[in-house]
Amino acid sequence: MTRDRETGLVKSVNPRLNWVSPSKWRLWSLPRAALAYVLVTDLAAALVTVIAGLHSTVSGKEWVWFAVLTVASILHLEAARSIERRRELAVEGVPYTNLKSLWVFTGVLLLPLPLVVGLAVIAYTYCWLRVYGEFVWHRKIFSAATFILASAAASAVLRAGGLAAAPRVPVDFLSLVVVVSAAATWWLVNYAMVVGAILLSNPETNARAALGDLSEQLVVAAALGLGIAVGALEASNPWVVPVLMVTVLALHRDLLLPQYQRAARTDDKTGLAAPTFWSQVVGAELRRAQLVGGNVGILMMDVDNFSEINNKYGHPAGDQALQSVVRVVRSEIRRGDLAARWGGDELAVLLPGTTPSELAMVGERIRLRLAHTPVTITHAKTAKSLVLDGITVSMGAAVYPDSGVDVDRLVLAADAALLAAKEAGRNQIRLATPCAPVEETGDPEVPPAIPFQTRPARRRTDIPS
């Protein structure tokens, strides 16, 4: 503990334990509609909990099930702590996919609703203490509330299907349909409420962005399906459940960590591949080409005079211009090709199986289309829309094995060709010439670039003032 010199208040070294005046809660900064939505959801969850507590009794067996699920949930969260902490930092403005739903839905099948609420509260409290770093309180309380309301809705489906008494696990086809319907209800209620909160909290966010990556909802489906299996097993032999922890952790790593890694492989601003990931894919393609005797081509391209747009109209305008270039490049390459943002306004494109002439043709097609595609940008100061007649780019091209036999040499050759194109007047493509054999102890020699005969293209008009 430390004492603040100005206020005299005792403050914890753990920022999560510091006292914050209610008047300064971030909750009150939400848009009015979002604030009402969050408060009503929290209140509804509290009322459901109170009403369920007044009408529920808990048997000794249910207490045992609750204890087993609590221990299993804590062990799971602790074992996956490092993964969840990284994912928590990476997620913003999209539904947060986690596997706490596994244990909570298992509780729906085995426990009265008050104990399901207790299970959810324990899970979120443990995450507060051990998993999450700094976080916004009202968001986690809202997430717990959506778990409670989703569990109440799923319990209602189970009762309506004739599965009122625990354990509510499938024993025949009809009961399986009821349990799967309850799982689907749990998912739909929780997902819809979270998406609604995102849309109300961020009015500029469109519905497609708020839905997030729909493929990630397969993680929730896997968790709910595993929850059904865990519930059936615990109903017959609860002490076998801890054995399933290996399976749960394997699912967590195989389903959730790759999503975090995929985010790390992508450039946020353009949606293109990140340089490190792009280099890894190029290396894999080179190894494949070496085995089959094929070619691998790469293009390095730089937007001509890109700084003019940034300097005159602001960086948002530069981002808009860069995104227009990205759209054209994506539309002109094949499904199996891979484009990356190499840095700033420089892009790199991998084109497996292309010869030097084919690579030059692709680059020229991109160059001509960019030069003739109008680009709309917004002036940062005046907020007025301006239209550029087109954007020109300079390109350097290199092909394995002629210009290099590994990633570094190939990129070096293409970059040297790009530099030659810029020095020769920009708005053109240069091909790296074949390189001489490299001694095992010598340094690679950068091959000189040769011009590719280009057709004249209308140059970009002067940027309007």
What do you see in this structure?
By secondary structure, the chain is an alpha+beta fold. It has 16 helices and ten strands. The protein folds into two domains: 12-264, no CATH class; 275-451, Alpha-Beta Plaits. Helix content is 55%, strand content 10%. The strands form three sheets. Strands 4-5-3-8-9-10 form a six-stranded mixed sheet, with helices on both faces. The protein has a two-stranded antiparallel sheet with strand order 1-2. 34% of the residues are buried. Mean pLDDT is 80; it is low at 1-15, 436-447 and 453-465.
The pLDDT mean sits at 80
Strand order of the main beta sheet, please? 4-5-3-8-9-10
Taken from the alpha-carbon principal axes, the silhouette is elongated
Number of domains: 2
Following the backbone from N to C, one meets helices and strands in this order, namely: EEHHHHHHHHHHHHEHHEEHEEEHEE
C-alpha-based Rg, rounded: 29 Å
Number of beta-strand segments? 10
Biggest sheet details: 6 strands, mixed
Fraction of residues in H or I helices: 55-70%
Question: Low-confidence runs (pLDDT<50, min 5 residues)?
Answer: 1-15, 436-447, 453-465
Number of helices: 16
Judged by helices, strands and strand pairing, the structural class is: alpha+beta
What is the strand content?
A: 5-15%
- How far apart lie the N and C ends? 58 Å
Protein name: Diguanylate cyclase (GGDEF)-like protein
Transmembrane segments: 34-54, 63-83, 103-129, 141-161, 173-202, 214-233
Domain GGDEF: 294-434
Region (Disordered): 438-465
